Amino acid sequence: MEECSFTQTQTPSQVRRNLEKRSPEQVDQKVGEVLQYLLVKDQKKLPIKRADIMKSVVKEYKDVYPEIMNRVGRTLQQAECRAAEEGHLSLLTEQVFGLQLEEVDTKNHIYILVNRLQRVEGDNMRVDDNTGKLGLLTVILSLIFMKGNVAKESVIWETLRRLRLDHGEKNSEFGDLKKLVTEEFVRQKYLEYTRIPHTEPVEYEFRWGPRAVKETSKMKILEFVSKIQNKDPQSWVTHYKEAMDEAATPARH
Amino acid sequence: MAEASRRSGGSGRTPSRGSAECSGGEEQEEMPGEDGNSGAEGNEETRRHIRHKYRELISSVQQNREDMLSSRSNRLTEVLEEANKLFGGVSRAREAALDAQFLVLASNLGKEKASQLHSDMIVFDPTAFAEDLLTFMGLNRLEGVESDDEEDGMANGFLPSDAWQRVGIEAEKYFKRAPTFHYMLGSFKMDPPVPKQRLERQKQKPSTEERRAMPAQLKKMEESHQEATEKEVERILGLLQTYFKEDPETPISFFDFVIDPASFARTVENIFHVSFIIRDGFARIKLDQDKLPVIEPAANEGQGTEQENQSRYQGVISLSPEDWKVQDEIIETFEITDPMIPPSPASE
């Protein structure tokens, strides 16, 4: 479980000693609580702060936090393997979710959940408001990547206007479009929205946020653009090369 | 790139122009010298004109960004040449700053154009991307509902309501997005406590009649009780005042007054009622020479205000049936044969 190492405030031996003070059931219970907390928090796709996990769930189990999070990470991950070797087989420690806990901000310890499983065609996943939003987000991420990993705000709005979305108007599907793009997507860490220095009038530009990096990749987005434009991904030579380079460098966890 | 070199070639002051985008300061240094050559007043008009021209140029560049970036267009070159001509007339820092601002804009555009050249065969064109997306969304170009007055190449046609859903469903394949879980029966908040409600309803039905009757009854009792107390207090005060008037010289013994030799309950009641009289200042209790409590009505009506200034004293009298029985002695001692306060007709 190297991928889900958490910054530890105690040494492993300390944690082990602390763990002996608690009954396995108590720790399992906490693991379950943290799991549920993460899943509920993820409903809105907002990043989860370690401080909040501590404050709201872990509480007095702080001294065994690394162990709890290790188990949470393990529980979230595997879809096929059951933790039968764990001695005490409870429903919670069955590794059933197929999700991965990722730290998107190592300084402030902010986590997100990502899917470890690739989506397949016709998996009958729920289609709701978020589906349309994801479509919009993907278009924006595509524009950013294809424009060289940073896109001026004007380019985004101009393209969206061509797609019948005016950022000054309320939209029946997305509500306040500007708010959705510059606030919600930003809070969810899909986008970064920053002011371009020394511009008069003030201009902003968009970049990919850390969640976008974790949930998708340059290659995936290039594939999306290619599909829409009915082209071979390799026909965008530089973009393709960049996407290959990204895939080749191991992800920084 | 070609534009930039042409531009600097046309200007005699190449070195300072080249760095103009990062600082207007260099040009400012040169300004005072040139400023001396020209008549200040006469130039004001031309300077304003130059500034106006620059602003026009800048806003036109900002508005036509995409057009300028298009590989087919030669607009960037044209705009730069125009600015170069304008710069010929610039003599002061203010105009030069505008020129610098324009140059920032132009070089940004140049940079973007250059990066487009990099992408070799195919240039990513947001406009074409948007067109293809509309097609993907299922745009029906034949059914034009959109107005035709849009001239900037906006595609007309009817966009189905699930257009973005279509894009979203496609997009999901490119994401490792964790599917959010949902409670099958909704979350806690949305779920009303159904069984609890049912229980309440069942309980309520039989109790409605009872409840309706109860408050009325209670209210009546309370009212009558209060009235009775008031009446009784008034009656006793009246008795006290009559006794006092009959013989103002002899003080009335408290025990003589309150004790009913025939009934312990009425004795207690009497003490209770007298306490109101004392509290409201209509009478007072003091000790006579034998240290026995005597009661007399308050001297006059002015007493009320005086009373407020006086500090309040509380006295506790305990009286049990045993005491009262022993009071047989008291009764004998005080020679109480008949109650001074006859029982009120109501209580009988």
TrEMBL record, chain A:
GO cellular component entries: nucleus
One Pfam family it belongs to: MAGE
Compositionally skewed regions (Polar residues) per UniProt: 1-16
Family matches, as Gene3D superfamilies: MAGE homology domain, winged helix WH1 motif, MAGE homology domain, winged helix WH2 motif
Superkingdom assignment: Eukaryota
Region spans: Disordered: 1-23
Record-annotated MAGE domain positions: 27-243
PANTHER family: MELANOMA-ASSOCIATED ANTIGEN MAGE ANTIGEN (PTHR11736), NSE3 HOMOLOG, SMC5-SMC6 COMPLEX COMPONENT (PTHR11736:SF14)
Protein name as annotated: Non-structural maintenance of chromosomes element 3 homolog isoform X1
Annotated source species: Microcaecilia unicolor
UniProtKB/TrEMBL annotation, chain B:
Protein name: Non-structural maintenance of chromosomes element 4
Domain Non-structural maintenance of chromosome element 4 C-terminal: 251-341
Record GO cellular component, one term: chromosome, telomeric region
Species, as recorded: Microcaecilia unicolor
Coiled-coil intervals, chain numbering: none
Lineage top rank: taxon: Eukaryota
Record function comment: Component of the SMC5-SMC6 complex, that promotes sister chromatid alignment after DNA damage and facilitates double-stranded DNA breaks (DSBs) repair via homologous recombination between sister chromatids.
Any one biological process term the GO annotation gives: DNA repair
Transmembrane spans: none
Similarity field: Belongs to the NSE4 family.
Keyword DNA damage on entry: yes
Region (Disordered): 1-47, 192-218
Keywords: Chromosome, DNA damage, DNA recombination, DNA repair, Nucleus, Telomere
Gene that specifies this protein: NSMCE4A
Subcellular localization, as worded in the UniProt entry: Chromosome, Telomere; Nucleus
Subunit structure: Component of the SMC5-SMC6 complex.
